[in-house]
Amino acid sequence: MAGISDEAVRAYWKEHREQLRQCETQRSALTNLLIVITAALSALIAQQHFSLYVIPLCIFIMLAGLYGAVAVSKYYERAAYHLSQARALTQDLVELGILGSDQRLVQARADHYRAFPWLHRIRLHSLWVILHVAIMFYGLSLLAVCVANA
After folding, report:
1. Which of 32, 101, 112, 142 has the most CB atoms around its CB within 10 Å?
2. Nearest to residue 9, comparing CAs of 95, 106, 100?
């Protein structure tokens, strides 16, 4: 780390943390948008009494759910990248003597895992993907109702 100032490392660390937060914000915004679109199209499909004319809307809901699952997976990948970069830079800050040891963090993590013995194992990313896959299957079920109603 010769020649690199601690301010430069901190700035780089901060940039990765901000990028991580941005990925989470974008994931949240996309999910909210797809839920609103799905709700609005569902109301329109019901208003049209599940006729054959709304089959394209059902297909659109299915595709939107699939797109959402892929997009939140990509946001997760980017967030994981920025988190790993920030963690590596944290280690650099420890080695430079700017940060102390991470004993307290390790203890806090162990306490957290004891407090939530099975819940901490559920990956939040999986829940977001499942939500979008559920939207896709909801669109498929609307399509089935429209076809059965014809």
Report:
1. 142
2. 95
* Neighbouring residues of 9: CB distance < 8 A, sequence distance ≥ 6: 1, 89, 92, 93, 96, 98
pLDDT tens-digit map of 10-50: 888 889 899 999 999 999 999 999 999 999 999 999 999 99
In single-letter form, the type of residue at position 37 comes to I
48-89 tens-digit pLDDT? 999 999 999 999 999 999 999 999 999 999 999 999 998 888
Q: Are 62 and 140 in contact (CB under 8 A)?
A: yes
Q: Looking at residue 145, what is its pLDDT?
A: 97
How much is the pTM?
0.87
What is the number of other CB atoms lying within 10 angstroms of the CB of residue 146?
A: 20
> Token pair of 24, please?
């989470």
- End-to-end, the C-alpha distance of the chain in Å comes to 70
3-state secondary structure of 50: coil
Closest residue by Cα to residue 73 from 139, 140, 131, 141: 131
Distance CA 91, CA 73 (A): 27
Helices (H), the chain: 6-47, 55-95, 103-115, 124-149
